Amino acid sequence: MSIAKRRRVVLLAAGVLLPLPWASGCSSGGDDSSPAAARRDVATAARDRVADTGTLRWALDAAPGTFNAFQTNADSGTQRIAGAVLPSLFTLDGQGRPQRNPDYLQAADVVDREPKQVVRYKLNPKAVWTDGRPLGAEDFTAQWKALRGADGAYWTARNAGYDRIAKVEPGDGEHEVEVTFAKPYADWRSLFTPLYPKSVMSGPTAFNDGRRRGLAVSAGPFMMRSITGGTKSVTLVRNPRWWGDRARLDKLVFKAVPVKDRPAALLAGKLDLAEVDRAMAERIQDAAEVPKKKGKAEGKAQKAENGKRGTDEQAAAEPSAQHGAEAGTDLAAGGRNAADSMRAWAEENSSKEARAEKAALRRLVVRKALEPAYTQLALNGTKGPLADERVRRAVARAIDRKDLAKLVLGPLGLPAKPLGNHLLMAGQQGYKDHSGALGGKDTHAAQALLADAGWRAAPASARQKALGAKTDDQGRDSGRDGGKRDGGRGAGPDAGDAGRSGRAPAAVVRKHGQPLELRFVVPTGAGTAPLGKVSARIARMLEAIGVRTKITKVSGSGYFKDHIASGNYDLALYSWPASAYPATDARPIYAKPQPAADGSLVVEQNYTRVGTDQIDQLFDEAVAELDSGSSRTLVSRADARIWAAAGSIPLYQRPQLVAARKTVVNAGAFGFATPRYQDIGFRK
């Protein structure tokens, strides 16, 4: 965590997303040249079409270590539960834009800019905590004092924004709160969400330890009823003091279920909603395929069920839907008639257990969207060849990002386009592709950059001579078994890569006699299979410019601590969640590392160690600029400079795959949108 304790953004090394629903939501104007985005996939239903009863079981990645979302050990479970039981003053729409939440706010505006920025909140007079006390200035004051960073006794994960506040006080009107800033803050809408009661924030002991076993006081459509198994199962029930739309569910149960155990839990009817990996998504979709001999009527019914999607984001998702219709629902595609016949035969001749499993799978549906997170290729710029910007740029110019996006997203029927921005995702208003600041795939340009940096292939005569020596003309040890390199030097192609280019790898480049070899660290474990394929494909691309890779596979538990955070890598694949407030949230990720008094390097969350003073300045100006258009322009300029520095190469937005019982409505692959928990339930 950064010394400055800026707003926490969580590293995604494996296949698990840790969304920050209240640390996101940027309103960006201007030209929206984003790729066609599947922003969300939710089966929407009007409240009168949702049963006024039921229990929904929702999988979490792990048991929450705390219910205080501002502590360092808060996780996705903490955030998901807080969203259902605590005030969110601003929620996010499908484009990641903050929207005033009328359940808590009648108004929230900047009422003064000079001499100080003043924000006035007019609270909903009906909003009360479960102990009957109205939400008020004392809750805002307690949260500000706990999170501003002035008292190290509070174990806070972040203080961004709160450290810019000068004072919090009651407004002139009833139910009004006024916040005066010492320094202008463009992202003021990110503050006080979630809002905790003053009892949680009143002192270090209450803040640090008091919320590890539950929340006695809350103010959402749900409230905590019970916690079992050491927080492995958290049961929420309707809040009897809730003043808004009544929750449709009787109970909302969050259960900690590892990804690998979710297929069995879903098939056994023990879960109703869970993010799943690609393998499980394919099983569900394969089971949904209806063989032709079962008749057109059943096929149409199945297609209609699979086609039910949220209407509020339908326009944004239409390009993806069209792509899916053209490609068909069979992820493998091709040979449709033969496949239909084979499935019909298999069903008629399958065992009782297989038929039961097929029936269970058909009770589920896959909701899929582009997640508000992206996978990047990180280039460690602190040492070795990649300390030279020309080498980093050469590596970037060798990468075919379109090919990698197609590899991961294409089989899922999602828009297979590379991401062109570090700070805004496809679908966010204001998204612009700034990858031109670095340049696209160009093998000759990459080789020219390497040559300029002193890395050149040996002359043909020297390469011929090498054939009889210890290394071949690609710089590999001739004693190795046929070039098998899985986990060793270089990387063999993944399935389907063989013969892709039809050309042999380029001769390895050298400088002062040493080959250019990069250590490529890749995580293993649940959810990382796509990264294995991507790393193999990247290694093959780098071979084309004479760069050798040594792939090192690391278990997920030690991947971040022992390699990414410590800088023990040259190349790495990991993901960052997107933010709706990039001027605040993204700065520590791209801040220029600074030397510490002990000689070490303070990198904050910039694990590539690549940054510039200009990038820092643009972020600082953007976060202090109250004119939204000017602030967006500064953020856009920062992204172009991040591309030019070539420390982080965005590859693609991650796919979000959610398995849901077919009767579940108003929940699924939410994308950027904040769930409206009181509307979630089962179709009547």
UniProtKB/TrEMBL annotation:
Keyword terms of this UniProt record: Signal
Signal sequence segment: 1-23
InterPro entries per record: Peptide/Ni-bd, SBP_5, SBP_5_dom
Positions with biased composition (Basic and acidic residues): 287-312, 470-488
Region described as Disordered: spans on this chain: 287-353, 461-509
Pfam family, one: SBP_bac_5
Compositional bias (Low complexity): 492-507
Domain Solute-binding protein family as annotated: residue spans: 114-292, 363-584
Name used for this protein in its record: ABC transporter family substrate-binding protein
Organism, scientific name: Streptomyces milbemycinicus
Classification of source organism: Bacteria, Bacillati, Actinomycetota, Actinomycetes, Kitasatosporales
